[in-house]
UniProtKB/TrEMBL annotation, chain A:
<keyword id="KW-0732">Signal</keyword>
<protein>
    <submittedName>
        <fullName>Sugar ABC transporter substrate-binding protein</fullName>
    </submittedName>
</protein>
<dbReference type="InterPro" id="IPR006061">
    <property type="entry name" value="SBP_1_CS"/>
</dbReference>
<feature type="region of interest" description="Disordered">
    <location>
        <begin position="29"/>
        <end position="53"/>
    </location>
</feature>
<dbReference type="InterPro" id="IPR006059">
    <property type="entry name" value="SBP"/>
</dbReference>
<feature type="compositionally biased region" description="Low complexity">
    <location>
        <begin position="33"/>
        <end position="48"/>
    </location>
</feature>
<dbReference type="InterPro" id="IPR050490">
    <property type="entry name" value="Bact_solute-bd_prot1"/>
</dbReference>
<comment type="similarity">
    <text>Belongs to the bacterial solute-binding protein 1 family.</text>
</comment>
<keyword id="KW-0813">Transport</keyword>
TrEMBL record, chain B:
<feature type="transmembrane region" description="Helical">
    <location>
        <begin position="184"/>
        <end position="206"/>
    </location>
</feature>
<dbReference type="Pfam" id="PF00528">
    <property type="entry name" value="BPD_transp_1"/>
</dbReference>
<feature type="transmembrane region" description="Helical">
    <location>
        <begin position="245"/>
        <end position="263"/>
    </location>
</feature>
<keyword id="KW-0813">Transport</keyword>
<keyword id="KW-0812">Transmembrane</keyword>
<feature type="domain" description="ABC transmembrane type-1">
    <location>
        <begin position="74"/>
        <end position="263"/>
    </location>
</feature>
<feature type="transmembrane region" description="Helical">
    <location>
        <begin position="7"/>
        <end position="29"/>
    </location>
</feature>
<comment type="similarity">
    <text>Belongs to the binding-protein-dependent transport system permease family.</text>
</comment>
<feature type="transmembrane region" description="Helical">
    <location>
        <begin position="109"/>
        <end position="133"/>
    </location>
</feature>
Length: 454, 278
């Protein structure tokens, strides 16, 4: 027994030492840019192995997150691509969305990335900064028809003057409202004309009339609850932009004077007031509250139209609910940017990889993609090829994304930006923290991350 | 007075049992509901738990989807978890035997070093292990899942505690009768530590059955994927397919529940015995 106890003491000492060490190192690995060394090493080892596959069939690996309709669309495009290019096969591997980044980053760090990866717009700068993906400018100039890609989308894919990804589609959000609840409470329905967006004040008044927490009816969910994740940031950022504020300076290097400007704070104050002053937004909502008729107003994107139709066929667009343009304040602003395809630096066959990327995201591929997925197109030629895109409800999203779209900040520090922003909104929404104090904290966190990458 | 005390204790235990059972009941009963009514009933009423309309649609959907064959994932997981459990019982019990019963130079130091690995979280060693697996060209194969899991410091530590209960005299008797160290291990120690081994096996199997992050990282080919990763794909960027998740979770719980049903006698026994030893 005594012997065991002594070894326990030894053990404890070792444990403590290791804990201190691992605490230090884990702190470092959370910061952006730390895997830079690993990424560049990987590209070196990859180039040594180059030209191995000559004369044989070339296999291109493509990783993307799992979403059945999109995966099916890609499968169709792979089939036609392989028919046209018999010497190239494409192997697609799908990864659960929740841990997509974890998997990609591990593979990049180990030097075994696939040839093509799916990238969400704002993560692009981090990958480009770490030299994990290659610029596509030469390909874009060759046969990528980049003049056909909507300008705000292209802007969101450009880092330090170079284009690093080809867009699969764009995204936008609108105001979804429960028509029955509006009519029951005698509220005038909002216009479907993208030029006639409701003001914050109109939205608040409608939410106040609908809100009836005693009977489990809630006024508004202004931004996908208060959770974390990029989707949540995507739908919340417009409050800051609409008030006239910004997150970062236009070149993406400064946060002071932008996120803490009076305009930005005004946007945050309005969001907070929905939860705390007017209490028209509930801090906790039952899941699928909108689809089950318990919620008056939400924000959502075009993907939700088909999503609601399959999950809740009894809840009908036009009868039970409708879509209006996203609300406005000092400015009318909607978020943009979605998933893209990028070629990794570790790819041994970048030319063939581009052939496939262009097959999917090019002028013809984009049309197939729209037909299969009904995602908001990133190409002007697609937008004009389908009449339904100029009709309700899609016209709202198309018009918003060409006139009012605002890309998310392009910076390698974006992972820190997005987590700080969702924390900031949760702080002022749920916790009802003082706005100045919460903003200062977010500004400091983001500023520290920005300093690191300089 | 004493009876009242007993009654109170029983009531309290029943309440605790109910509280822990309700989420599981909700999962099982929810898997038989159509998606539309899953979140329809939020107040305390009969239909909060019990479906209005019973349906098997969720189960049909998860087992008939040819792009995500749940049956294949279950088979893969049973194979990997079973093999890992067997290997880890073998290797870990031999190591634990050495640490608890053999005398050799540096044993305590070696054991302390081993145990110090307990405090390093798996996430920290994940990338180095991945690099190693990659260098062996084991990515996308079951080697990557099975071999690193075949030895577990935690299992060795627990088994050492269990083996300490086996009286030294018993082993010495074997020694006197001329048994080799391996004979003592196989014929005396192992038979007298069956409950401990079953407990360890259950913990290992359950851990493998539920493992998520590691298979996610090392397995690329969808047809080789493990169950939990496959279930995670029912949640995507746009929506969460709750009906399918509840049905898949229920289906995934059944094998574990059956295992526990048969082995719980030993499981409880070994917890009790280790508790006494404390």
């Amino acid at each position: 027994m005594l012997r065991l106890r002594r070894s326990m003491v030894v053990l404890l000492i070792i444990c403590l030492g290791i804990m201190v060490l691992s605490a230090c190192s884990s702190k470092k690995s959370n910061e952006p840019g730390s895997s830079e060394g690993a990424a560049s090493e990987s590209s070196a080892s990859a180039s040594q192995e180059e030209n191995k596959g000559d004369g044989k069939k070339i296999e291109i690996k493509y990783w993307r997150h799992d979403f059945a309709p999109e995966v099916d669309a890609i499968k169709k495009l792979i089939k036609t691509f392989e028919e046209k290019n018999p010497n190239v096969t494409v192997k697609m591997e799908v990864i659960p969305y929740g841990d997509y980044e974890t998997k990609i980053r591990t593979a990049l760090a180990a030097g075994s990335p696939p040839d093509i990866i799916g990238l969400d717009g704002p993560t692009l700068a981090a990958y480009a900064h770490q030299d994990a993906v290659i610029p596509l400018d030469k390909y874009m100039d060759m046969d990528g028809n980049k003049e056909d890609i909507a300008a705000p989308v292209l802007e969101s894919l450009t880092y330090k003057g170079k284009i690093y990804a080809a867009p699969l589609n764009d995204a936008s959000i609108g105001m979804f409202y429960n028509k029955k609840l509006f009519e029951k409470n005698g509220i005038e329905l909002p216009s479907k004309d993208p030029q006639q967006a409701w003001t914050w004040d109109q939205v608040l008044k409608a939410a106040q009339k609908i809100n009836d927490p005693a009977n489990k009816i809630y006024g508004i969910d202004p931004g996908w609850g208060l959770g974390e994740g990029e989707g949540s940031t995507f739908v919340k950022l417009p409050f800051i932009w609409q008030a006239g504020g910004e997150i970062l300076s236009p070149d993406g290097t400064q946060v002071k004077g932008f996120l803490d400007s009076p305009e930005s704070k005004k946007g945050l104050a309005f969001f907070s007031s929905l939860y705390n002053e007017y209490k028209v937004a509930a801090k906790e909502l039952p899941p699928e509250a909108f689809e089950t008729g318990k919620l008056g107003i939400i924000v959502n994107g075009p993907w939700a139209i088909s999503g609601f139709a399959t999950s809740h066929p009894e809840f009908k667009l036009g009868e039970d609910w409708d879509i209006a343009p996203l609300w406005k304040d000092a400015k009318q602003v909607t978020p943009n940017g979605s998933w893209n395809m990028a070629i990794t630096k570790g790819s041994k066959h970048p030319d063939e990889a581009w052939m496939f990327v262009n097959w999917v995201t090019g002028v013809e591929g984009a049309k197939v993609w729209y037909q299969e997925t009904k995602n908001l197109p990133a190409r002007l030629s697609t937008a004009s090829a389908f009449p339904e895109l100029s009709e309700y409800p899609m016209n709202i999203f198309v018009e918003q994304s060409s006139k009012f779209a605002h890309p998310r900040p392009v910076t390698p520090a974006y992972p820190v930006v997005t987590s700080s922003i969702s924390k900031l909104f949760a702080d002022i929404g749920v916790a009802n923290r003082d706005i100045d104090e919460a903003v200062d904290e977010a500004v400091n966190t983001i500023d520290r991350a920005l300093q690191k990458i300089k | 007075m004493e009876r009242a005390g007993h009654l109170l204790k029983w009531m309290l235990m029943i309440v605790i049992a109910l509280i822990s059972l309700i989420p599981i009941l909700w999962m099982i009963l929810g898997s038989f509901r159509p998606r539309q009514e899953l979140f329809q009933y939020v107040s305390l009423e009969w239909h909060l738990l019990f479906p209005v309309k019973w349906t098997l649609q969720n189960y049909i959907a998860i087992f008939s989807d040819s792009s995500k064959p749940l049956g294949v994932f279950i088979k893969n997981t049973v194979f990997v978890a079973g093999l890992v459990t067997l290997l880890s019982l073998l290797f870990n019990s031999m190591a634990a035997f050495a640490f608890s019963k053999l005398k050799f130079r540096g044993r305590n130091l070696l054991f302390a070093v081993f145990l110090s690995a307990l405090v390093i979280p798996g996430e920290v060693t994940m990338v180095p292990t991945y690099l190693l697996i990659h260098a062996f060209h084991w990515t996308d194969s079951y080697n990557a899942l099975i071999i690193p899991a075949a030895v577990s410091v935690f299992s060795i530590f627990l088994l050492v505690q269990f083996f300490a209960d086996v009286p030294r005299e018993l082993l010495e008797a074997g020694k006197i009768d001329g048994a080799s160290w391996f004979g003592i291990y196989a014929k005396i120690l192992i038979p007298s530590a069956v409950p401990a081994l079953i407990t360890m096996g259950l913990i290992t199997f359950l851990g493998q059955w539920d493992s998520y992050l590691w298979p996610l990282i090392v397995i690329n080919d969808e047809s080789k994927q493990m169950l939990q990763v496959a279930i995670a794909t029912f949640t995507n960027l746009q929506s969460t397919e709750w009906g399918k998740i509840l049905a898949a979770d229920t289906a995934a719980s059944v094998p574990i529940l059956i295992l526990f049903l048969f082995l719980q006698k030993y499981y409880v026994q070994s917890i009790v015995s280790s508790g006494i030893k404390g």
